[in-house]
Design brief:
Elements (H helix, E strand, L loop, with lengths): L1 H10 L7 E3 L3 H9 L5 E3 L2 H5 L4 E4 L3 H11 L8 E4 L5 H7 L7 E7 L20 E6 L5 H13 L3 E4 L2 H32 L2 H5 L2 H7 L6 H10 L1 H24 L2 H21 L1
Parallel strand pairs: 1-2, 3-4, 4-5, 6-7
Antiparallel strand pairs: 5-6
Helix pairs in contact: 4-5, 7-11
Protein backbone atom coordinates (compact mmCIF):
# COMPACT_ATOMS: atom_id res chain seq x y z
CA UNK A 1 0.00 0.00 0.00
CA UNK A 2 2.88 2.34 0.70
CA UNK A 3 4.43 1.72 -2.70
CA UNK A 4 1.09 2.28 -4.43
CA UNK A 5 0.76 5.62 -2.66
CA UNK A 6 4.28 6.60 -3.73
CA UNK A 7 3.41 5.77 -7.33
CA UNK A 8 0.30 7.94 -7.26
CA UNK A 9 2.07 10.87 -5.60
CA UNK A 10 5.00 10.65 -8.00
CA UNK A 11 2.92 10.21 -11.16
CA UNK A 12 0.65 13.09 -10.23
CA UNK A 13 3.49 15.39 -9.24
CA UNK A 14 1.68 15.91 -5.96
CA UNK A 15 4.74 16.38 -3.73
CA UNK A 16 8.00 18.25 -3.96
CA UNK A 17 9.81 14.96 -3.30
CA UNK A 18 8.55 11.43 -2.75
CA UNK A 19 10.78 9.21 -0.63
CA UNK A 20 10.51 5.56 0.21
CA UNK A 21 12.04 3.45 2.97
CA UNK A 22 12.23 -0.33 2.67
CA UNK A 23 14.04 -3.03 4.63
CA UNK A 24 15.15 -5.13 1.66
CA UNK A 25 17.74 -3.87 -0.81
CA UNK A 26 15.85 -5.60 -3.61
CA UNK A 27 12.76 -3.50 -2.84
CA UNK A 28 14.87 -0.34 -2.73
CA UNK A 29 16.24 -1.10 -6.21
CA UNK A 30 12.87 -2.13 -7.65
CA UNK A 31 11.18 1.04 -6.40
CA UNK A 32 13.92 3.30 -7.73
CA UNK A 33 14.19 1.77 -11.19
CA UNK A 34 10.39 1.63 -11.52
CA UNK A 35 10.30 5.40 -10.99
CA UNK A 36 7.98 5.03 -8.02
CA UNK A 37 10.00 7.45 -5.89
CA UNK A 38 12.48 10.29 -6.16
CA UNK A 39 14.65 8.79 -3.44
CA UNK A 40 14.57 5.42 -1.72
CA UNK A 41 16.71 3.96 1.04
CA UNK A 42 16.81 1.16 3.58
CA UNK A 43 17.99 3.58 6.26
CA UNK A 44 14.98 4.89 8.16
CA UNK A 45 16.70 7.94 9.58
CA UNK A 46 17.88 9.06 6.14
CA UNK A 47 14.39 8.55 4.74
CA UNK A 48 12.62 10.75 7.26
CA UNK A 49 15.22 13.50 7.48
CA UNK A 50 13.54 16.86 6.89
CA UNK A 51 10.25 15.29 5.78
CA UNK A 52 7.04 17.36 5.94
CA UNK A 53 4.79 14.28 5.95
CA UNK A 54 5.73 10.80 7.17
CA UNK A 55 3.39 7.88 6.38
CA UNK A 56 4.00 4.48 7.95
CA UNK A 57 2.75 1.55 5.85
CA UNK A 58 3.91 -1.59 7.66
CA UNK A 59 2.25 -4.19 9.93
CA UNK A 60 0.58 -2.64 12.96
CA UNK A 61 3.05 -3.56 15.68
CA UNK A 62 5.94 -2.44 13.49
CA UNK A 63 4.19 0.93 13.07
CA UNK A 64 3.99 1.26 16.85
CA UNK A 65 7.69 0.52 17.37
CA UNK A 66 8.67 2.81 14.48
CA UNK A 67 6.70 5.71 15.97
CA UNK A 68 8.78 5.41 19.12
CA UNK A 69 11.95 5.45 17.06
CA UNK A 70 11.25 8.35 14.71
CA UNK A 71 9.45 10.75 17.05
CA UNK A 72 12.55 12.51 18.42
CA UNK A 73 14.06 12.80 14.91
CA UNK A 74 11.24 14.60 13.10
CA UNK A 75 11.00 18.33 12.55
CA UNK A 76 8.39 20.30 14.53
CA UNK A 77 5.11 20.47 12.63
CA UNK A 78 5.67 17.21 10.72
CA UNK A 79 2.43 15.41 9.84
CA UNK A 80 2.72 11.78 10.97
CA UNK A 81 0.23 9.35 9.43
CA UNK A 82 -0.11 5.59 9.16
CA UNK A 83 -1.97 3.06 7.04
CA UNK A 84 -2.48 0.37 9.67
CA UNK A 85 -5.55 -1.84 9.81
CA UNK A 86 -6.26 -1.15 13.48
CA UNK A 87 -6.26 2.26 15.05
CA UNK A 88 -6.59 2.23 18.85
CA UNK A 89 -3.11 0.87 19.59
CA UNK A 90 -1.50 3.06 16.95
CA UNK A 91 -3.28 6.23 18.07
CA UNK A 92 -2.24 5.49 21.66
CA UNK A 93 1.38 5.31 20.47
CA UNK A 94 0.90 8.50 18.47
CA UNK A 95 -0.24 10.25 21.63
CA UNK A 96 3.26 9.68 23.01
CA UNK A 97 4.97 11.49 20.12
CA UNK A 98 6.69 14.81 20.91
CA UNK A 99 4.11 17.60 21.28
CA UNK A 100 5.39 19.57 18.28
CA UNK A 101 4.39 16.76 15.86
CA UNK A 102 0.97 16.41 14.21
CA UNK A 103 -0.35 12.81 14.33
CA UNK A 104 -3.34 11.51 12.37
CA UNK A 105 -4.24 7.81 12.32
CA UNK A 106 -5.27 6.47 8.93
CA UNK A 107 -6.58 3.37 7.19
CA UNK A 108 -7.30 3.25 3.44
CA UNK A 109 -9.97 0.59 2.83
CA UNK A 110 -8.45 -0.95 -0.27
CA UNK A 111 -5.92 -3.55 0.81
CA UNK A 112 -5.14 -6.79 -1.02
CA UNK A 113 -4.36 -10.30 0.17
CA UNK A 114 -0.93 -9.92 -1.45
CA UNK A 115 1.87 -7.71 -0.16
CA UNK A 116 5.18 -6.27 -1.29
CA UNK A 117 6.34 -3.92 -4.01
CA UNK A 118 5.38 -6.37 -6.75
CA UNK A 119 1.74 -5.99 -5.71
CA UNK A 120 1.77 -2.18 -5.90
CA UNK A 121 -0.30 -0.39 -8.53
CA UNK A 122 -1.21 3.11 -9.59
CA UNK A 123 -4.80 4.09 -8.88
CA UNK A 124 -5.22 1.71 -5.95
CA UNK A 125 -6.84 4.45 -3.84
CA UNK A 126 -9.21 5.79 -6.48
CA UNK A 127 -12.77 5.87 -5.05
CA UNK A 128 -11.63 4.06 -1.90
CA UNK A 129 -12.70 5.14 1.57
CA UNK A 130 -9.74 6.43 3.58
CA UNK A 131 -10.46 6.53 7.31
CA UNK A 132 -8.75 9.31 9.25
CA UNK A 133 -8.59 9.13 13.05
CA UNK A 134 -7.37 12.41 14.50
CA UNK A 135 -6.15 12.62 18.08
CA UNK A 136 -7.43 15.29 20.50
CA UNK A 137 -4.09 17.05 20.00
CA UNK A 138 -4.34 17.04 16.18
CA UNK A 139 -4.79 20.54 14.78
CA UNK A 140 -7.55 21.27 12.23
CA UNK A 141 -4.85 22.27 9.72
CA UNK A 142 -3.10 18.89 10.07
CA UNK A 143 -6.38 17.00 9.63
CA UNK A 144 -7.18 19.11 6.57
CA UNK A 145 -3.75 18.28 5.09
CA UNK A 146 -4.28 14.55 5.70
CA UNK A 147 -7.69 14.73 4.00
CA UNK A 148 -6.19 16.72 1.11
CA UNK A 149 -3.56 14.02 0.59
CA UNK A 150 -6.22 11.29 0.51
CA UNK A 151 -8.33 13.25 -1.96
CA UNK A 152 -5.29 13.97 -4.15
CA UNK A 153 -4.93 10.24 -4.92
CA UNK A 154 -8.67 9.83 -5.53
CA UNK A 155 -9.73 8.53 -2.11
CA UNK A 156 -12.69 9.69 -0.04
CA UNK A 157 -11.67 10.64 3.52
CA UNK A 158 -14.00 9.68 6.37
CA UNK A 159 -13.37 10.84 9.94
CA UNK A 160 -13.82 8.15 12.61
CA UNK A 161 -12.46 7.87 16.13
CA UNK A 162 -10.10 4.94 16.68
CA UNK A 163 -12.39 2.75 18.80
CA UNK A 164 -15.32 3.09 16.40
CA UNK A 165 -13.05 2.26 13.44
CA UNK A 166 -11.76 -0.87 15.17
CA UNK A 167 -15.26 -2.12 15.99
CA UNK A 168 -16.44 -1.64 12.40
CA UNK A 169 -13.44 -3.19 10.64
CA UNK A 170 -13.58 -6.16 13.02
CA UNK A 171 -16.89 -7.05 11.34
CA UNK A 172 -16.05 -6.35 7.69
CA UNK A 173 -12.37 -7.31 7.55
CA UNK A 174 -11.00 -9.17 10.54
CA UNK A 175 -13.90 -11.59 11.06
CA UNK A 176 -14.00 -12.46 7.32
CA UNK A 177 -10.32 -13.40 7.51
CA UNK A 178 -10.98 -15.81 10.38
CA UNK A 179 -14.04 -17.23 8.61
CA UNK A 180 -12.06 -17.73 5.40
CA UNK A 181 -9.28 -19.43 7.35
CA UNK A 182 -11.74 -21.77 9.07
CA UNK A 183 -13.46 -22.52 5.76
CA UNK A 184 -10.15 -23.36 4.10
CA UNK A 185 -9.25 -25.70 6.96
CA UNK A 186 -12.66 -27.40 6.73
CA UNK A 187 -12.18 -28.03 3.00
CA UNK A 188 -8.63 -29.22 3.66
CA UNK A 189 -10.09 -31.81 6.05
CA UNK A 190 -12.30 -33.06 3.22
CA UNK A 191 -9.33 -32.98 0.86
CA UNK A 192 -7.31 -35.17 3.21
CA UNK A 193 -9.84 -37.96 2.54
CA UNK A 194 -10.65 -37.11 -1.06
CA UNK A 195 -8.29 -34.84 -3.02
CA UNK A 196 -10.88 -34.47 -5.80
CA UNK A 197 -12.47 -31.68 -3.74
CA UNK A 198 -9.72 -29.34 -4.98
CA UNK A 199 -10.59 -30.17 -8.59
CA UNK A 200 -14.23 -29.32 -7.94
CA UNK A 201 -13.51 -26.08 -6.06
CA UNK A 202 -14.41 -23.13 -8.27
CA UNK A 203 -15.55 -19.51 -8.03
CA UNK A 204 -17.64 -19.79 -4.87
CA UNK A 205 -14.83 -21.31 -2.82
CA UNK A 206 -12.23 -19.03 -4.41
CA UNK A 207 -14.19 -15.88 -3.56
CA UNK A 208 -15.10 -16.87 0.00
CA UNK A 209 -11.61 -18.14 0.86
CA UNK A 210 -9.58 -15.43 -0.91
CA UNK A 211 -8.51 -13.48 2.17
CA UNK A 212 -7.18 -16.65 3.81
CA UNK A 213 -4.18 -16.13 1.52
CA UNK A 214 -3.34 -12.83 3.25
CA UNK A 215 0.03 -12.26 4.88
CA UNK A 216 0.10 -14.16 8.17
CA UNK A 217 2.25 -11.69 10.12
CA UNK A 218 0.11 -8.77 8.99
CA UNK A 219 -3.05 -10.44 10.28
CA UNK A 220 -1.44 -11.63 13.50
CA UNK A 221 -0.69 -7.97 14.25
CA UNK A 222 -4.27 -7.01 13.36
CA UNK A 223 -5.86 -9.72 15.49
CA UNK A 224 -3.62 -9.18 18.52
CA UNK A 225 -4.19 -5.41 18.52
CA UNK A 226 -7.96 -5.68 18.02
CA UNK A 227 -8.74 -8.78 20.07
CA UNK A 228 -11.73 -7.49 22.00
CA UNK A 229 -13.63 -6.22 18.95
CA UNK A 230 -12.79 -9.33 16.91
CA UNK A 231 -13.90 -11.67 19.70
CA UNK A 232 -17.21 -9.82 19.93
CA UNK A 233 -17.73 -10.35 16.19
CA UNK A 234 -16.75 -14.03 16.41
CA UNK A 235 -19.40 -14.48 19.10
CA UNK A 236 -22.02 -12.75 16.93
CA UNK A 237 -21.05 -14.88 13.93
CA UNK A 238 -21.24 -18.10 15.95
CA UNK A 239 -24.77 -17.14 17.05
CA UNK A 240 -25.89 -16.59 13.45
CA UNK A 241 -24.23 -19.80 12.27
CA UNK A 242 -25.85 -21.66 15.16
CA UNK A 243 -29.26 -20.35 14.09
CA UNK A 244 -28.68 -21.61 10.54
CA UNK A 245 -27.54 -24.98 11.87
CA UNK A 246 -30.61 -25.33 14.08
CA UNK A 247 -33.01 -24.56 11.22
CA UNK A 248 -31.24 -27.04 8.97
CA UNK A 249 -31.13 -29.70 11.66
CA UNK A 250 -34.87 -29.28 12.26
CA UNK A 251 -35.63 -29.41 8.54
CA UNK A 252 -37.37 -26.04 8.87
CA UNK A 253 -37.37 -25.08 5.20
CA UNK A 254 -39.60 -22.05 5.59
CA UNK A 255 -37.59 -20.68 8.48
CA UNK A 256 -34.38 -21.25 6.53
CA UNK A 257 -35.89 -19.60 3.45
CA UNK A 258 -36.92 -16.50 5.41
CA UNK A 259 -33.51 -16.13 7.01
CA UNK A 260 -31.59 -16.61 3.74
CA UNK A 261 -33.86 -14.24 1.85
CA UNK A 262 -33.32 -11.60 4.52
CA UNK A 263 -29.53 -11.85 4.25
CA UNK A 264 -29.77 -11.90 0.44
CA UNK A 265 -31.64 -8.58 0.55
CA UNK A 266 -29.08 -7.05 2.92
CA UNK A 267 -26.24 -8.10 0.59
CA UNK A 268 -28.07 -6.84 -2.51
CA UNK A 269 -28.80 -3.50 -0.84
CA UNK A 270 -25.13 -3.01 0.01
CA UNK A 271 -24.07 -3.86 -3.55
CA UNK A 272 -26.53 -1.38 -5.03
CA UNK A 273 -25.22 1.28 -2.67
CA UNK A 274 -21.74 0.78 -4.12
Amino acid sequence: MGASLCMDLKEGGLCREVRGVARRTRTVLDAFFAGAVDLVTNDLHTGILGADIVILATPVRNIISTLNEIGPRLWPGTLVMDMGSTKSSICAAMEMLPPALEPVGGHPMCGKETAGFESAECGLYRNATWVLSPLPRTSPAALDLAAELAEAVGAQPVILDAARHDRLVASISHLPFLVASALTRAVADVGADDAAVWQLAAGGFRDTSRVAASDTQMFLDILMTNRSAVLDQVETFQAHLGELRALLEDGDEEGLRALLQGTQQVRAGWTQGK
